[in-house]
Amino acid sequence: MIAFIIFFLLSYCFSIYLMRKMKKQAKEFIMFSVLAWLGFVLWIFIFLDRPVSPNQWITWVIDTVKGH
């Protein structure tokens, strides 16, 4: 699990770096960050063998970001 966490953090930092270099809008940063961290939490739940419903989380995030 430590390898997964390190890989995720490195990938996330590299993606943010590329997005800043490409001068993306703040809304795109927020959407990417929220979905990436929700995916991270989902995988942690899977590794810990806990039941979770990611569809409700992702739907709520997309609706919240689109509404603003």
Question: How would you summarize what this structure contains?
Answer:
The protein has 68 residues and is mainly α. It has helices spanning 2-21, 26-47, 54-67. The termini are far apart.
Overview of this structure, please?
The protein is mainly α and 68 residues long. It has one domain. The chain has three helices and no strands. The chain has helices spanning 2-21, 26-47, 54-67. It is flat. It starts with a helix and ends with a helix. 0% of the residues are buried. The mean pLDDT is 86.
Notable characteristics:
68 residues; mainly alpha; 3 helices; 0% strand; flat
Mean pLDDT across every amino acid position: 86
Give a short account of the largest sheet: none
Shape assignment: flat
**Total number of beta strands:** 0
Helix % is: over 70%
The separation of the N and C termini measures 36 Å
User: How many helices in DSSP terms?
Assistant: 3
Structural class: mainly alpha
Q: How many domain units?
A: 1
Question: Uncertain spans, ≥5 residues at pLDDT below 50?
Answer: none
**What order do the SSEs take from the amino end to the carboxyl end, as H and E?**
HHH
- What is the rounded Rg? 14 Å
